[in-house]
Amino acid sequence: MTKNDIADVLREIAVLLELKGENPFKIRAYENGARTLESLTDDLGEVIASGKLSEVKGIGEALTQKITELHKTGRLRFHEELRTSVAPGLVEMLEIPNLGPKKIKALHDKLGISSIAALAKACADGLVAELPGFGEKTQQKLLEGIKHREAYGRRHLWWNAHAVAGPIVAGLRKLRGVKHAEAAGSLRRGLETVGDLDFIVAADAKDSKAVGRIVDWFTARPGVFEVTARGETKTSVRYENGLQADLRIVPEEQFAFALHHFTGSKDHNVQMRQRALARGLSLSEWGLEPADGEGTVKTKAAAHAETRAKITSETELFAALGLAFIEPELREGLDEIEAAELTNNRLPHLVEHTDLRGAFHNHTTASDGRSTLEEMIAAAQTLGWEYIGIADHSKSSHQARGLDERRLADQVDCIQKINTSGRFKTHVFAGTECDILTDGSLDFDDLTLAQLDFVVASVHNAFSQGEEQMTARIIRAIENPRVTMLGHMTGRLLLRREGYRVNAAKVIDAAIANGVIIELNASPWRLDMDWRLWHGAAARGLLCSINPDAHETGHLAFVRTGVNIARKGWLSKQNIINTKPSPKCARGLKPTARDLMAQATMGEAARRGDAGAHRKTKTRCSR
DNA sequence: GCCGTTTTCGGCCCGACTGTTTTCAGTCG
Asked: Which residues are in the DNA-directed DNA polymerase X domain (predicted)?
């Protein structure tokens, strides 16, 4: 077992102990142990072998014994016994907002509730409100939480759906008889959440053997829980994680139409069909053919065959309707069809994953990350990034072990040494994810922030402030000249928690007026600021930073979802700060992130022809 | 369960908020 696997087990023990009502400090000891393990820079096997594990601060005799057992055998008796002593439904109940271990324990002890279903019934029967410490409002909130959870349960994060779909598409393409295979639907459109998966395969429909082989392969994939339909052209399965998937096998000449149709969105398809009708054509998943009553010269069948023969790709399908190719991410029925008009093509050249040269806002084990500073830099280097920005939490985020001034200064010092050592090709920008306090002031003073290359300002508490207060709070932070960018604008967690109430339009206005960047937090759970806002905001000069908010090396890959969302927001690489090269300042001075910001901001302003629009100029070259 | 120039027991991180209370417990980040 690796140190991070062992840390996971220690954390699970902490959760189980909480549900049992154990001593909170004992619980924290397990959490600390997990953290300590993750920050360990030496090889765990060697530390154990040398007998020095118990000398590590935060790991005493008991944890040494447990970690050793896990490392050697991959199992821990104490953990397994603990697991069987707690009903699994209790752990699941922790996912309901406003329900923590203490209340779950009370519900279990007093009403014998050990599942979400049982809790829903008890709430509906009014039993929960009668318990001491609970009341009508709590009961109502719990019911709503359960209802939300059920509604959310029908959708899945893009990231998770993509992980399931990727190998299936790759596998389908390798099968004999398959000419093309693609995932369609909201997955292909890069939507933040996905309802179900759609796979479109082109194959010879008359070759029933080949079709049977494809269907057999699809239904026999590991993780398939049940086959819900198996017909001539459509097969449906459900995976163990609840995700549904449809496989459609179509003749090759129909592939482009089926792919377009099942990619959607519904609104986009409606508009496309209207456009076709205006041209005397009828568009469907089967093809593009003369609309009824319009096929006067040729017979309908002949015209049909002729049109189909001409169209073998989506590009040709769009062209047949006088449109440029519309990237799937843009097909939301907003303005994309008007913009794609071939005679006046206004479609943007969308940013691509390969345009990124680095990313800001990443955590390390100094706060709540699981990879050390060196591990994060090495991972960025492996990705070929020119630079990586480190932004650990600030001191008010106690729960995330936020850095105080002294620890931040130590980290900056460490980053400077790494940069000058030449150990890594990737340059490291020193930053912070600085808490925006309840009144809009920042968690660090100006002097502390001045030593940094960049500052991400984020809200991490008092989520329930009213819209007016929250908006004023965030704008006050944006107006602080030390702030480079605003972190996760609404704090939402997709499928789990609504964001805090904030007037996005006012925040965007303030960011533009102050030359502050807004983050596109690329964590698959956040994708915040929402893609629906980017198009308009960027057109008015707002600069975006695609930030992975990585808490371990593997999370750097989250920029992939960030790019999806940026594309859905019509963004080109010019709109995104981390597509810019690491700046080499004149006179050989050390590059800083602020120069990058200044360059890009000025570039954006120049492009729009109003260079004076940004009242803040950030031209500092070095500290 | 861990720690220690207050060292083998007693303390361990905290502020805001909500709903339940009538001074506080639980949840969240």
From this structure: 1-332
pLDDT confidence band for A340 (50 / 70 / 90)? very high
Q: How far is the CA of A402 from the C1' of B6 (A)?
A: 28
Contact A144, A99 (CB under 8 A): no
Contact A203, A249 (CB under 8 A): yes
Give A241-265 pLDDT, tens digit per residue.
Answer: 778 899 999 999 889 999 999 998 8
Residues 20-59 of A with CB under 7 A from strand B: 23, 25-26, 28-30, 32-33, 56-59
Q: Which of A105, A134, A152 finishes a domain?
A: A152
Nucleotides of B under 7 A from a protein CB: 1-4, 11-21, 25-29
Backbone φ and ψ for A184, nearest 5 degrees, come out as -115, -150
How far, in Å, CA of A490 to CA of A507, rounded? 11
The domain that holds A207 is classified in CATH as 3.30.460.10
Which residues of chain A between 399 and 428 are close to nucleic strand B, CB under 7 A?
A: 399
Provide the 3-class DSSP secondary structure of residue A180: strand
Residues A261, A228: one domain? no
d(CA A59, C1' B4) / Å? 15
Among A203, A221, A250, which residue terminates a domain?
A250
- Nearest 5 degrees, angle CA A550-CA A553-CA A558? 50
Domain count within chain A: 4
In a domain, A621, yes or no: no
Strand residues in A476-548 grouped as ranges (E): 485-486, 517-521, 544-547
pLDDT in tens, A124-155: 999 999 998 899 989 998 998 888 777 666 78
DSSP state of A554: G
Element (DSSP H or E) covering residue A388: strand A387-393
The pLDDT-based confidence of A585 (bands split at 50, 70, 90) is: very low
Both structure tokens of A601: 């901001």
Which pair of structure tokens corresponds to residue A107? 């519900």
Q: Are residues A166 and A234 in the same domain?
A: yes
Is residue A613 over pLDDT 70? no
Assess whether pLDDT exceeds 80 at residue A313: yes
In this structure, is residue A622 part of a structural domain?
no
3-state SS of A137-159 is HHHHHHHHHHHHHHHHCCCEEHH
**Residue A335, number of CB atoms within 10 A of its CB:** 13
Residues A224 and A270 reside in one and the same domain: no
Q: Do A546 and A498 have their domain in common?
A: yes
Q: Report how far residue A369's alpha carbon sits from residue A550's, in angstroms, rounded to the nearest whole number.
A: 8
Identify residue A275 by its one-letter amino acid code: R
Which CATH number does the domain housing residue A286 bear? Answer: 3.30.210.10
| Residue A619 maps to a domain | no
Q: Is residue A623 part of a domain?
A: no
The CATH number covering residue A598 comes to: 3.20.20.140
The neighbouring-strand residues paired with A550 are: A362
CA distance A295 to A289: 9
Q: What is the mean pLDDT of chain A?
A: 86
Contact between A562 and A531 under an 8 Å Cβ cutoff? The reply is no
